[in-house]
Known about the structure:
By secondary structure, this protein is mainly beta. The chain has 1 helix and 17 strands.
Amino acid sequence: MWVQDFEGRDDQPPDSRVWTYDLGGGGWGDGQRQVYTGDAANADLDGAGHLRITARREVDNTITSARLTTRTSFATRYGRIEARIKVPGGRGTWPAFWMLGADIDEVGWPACGEIDVMEHVGTEPRRCCGTLHGPGYSGLAGGVGAAIDAGTDLSEDFHDYAVLWDESGITWLLDDREHHRLTRSDVPGPWPFDHPFFLLVNLAIGGDWPELDTDTPDLPAVLLVDRISVDELD
């Protein structure tokens, strides 16, 4: 089993042997407002066993945040992929734990495939979404997936977000509760989910997601990640 538990001193950066950073702004394809950095002010350990991703407004009014990836260190095909996360909540927040096909440099997106294990928007505090993106079904209007009403404000505590992924399909779970499943027959195009994928975790601010309130985002906002694990199939 591959595990990241984020033990370390307060203000220490996450393990650079595992995590690298996607950098920059420009909206990231759907109008997001943040600029991603590699600064400790946006991604560090909190000294209590958590990765802390902080979105903040800088003195020049720029919103900064972080997007971490295992693109250069780790990828997996099939298994249980899980993260224990406390989302920030609040207006304008859009945290996600997700995966991209490791062949993205060769084939591009969405041909590489994208598995969104968890996405959450702060203005819908009880709901999280799990989605697939592939050729012919990608983007905010085109991805195939579903949302679950957790019955509680997800920002109030840590929750376990997971997928069970094998050659027959992908199942989403919230706190071990299965909430939907997708197979090849459920998507209107190719099924690019049979090769290795790497992991990403990020905190976006604003964007074109319909439920986002982006005019006055609640900042600073903090996403805490207690653990990320991958239990690969034999």
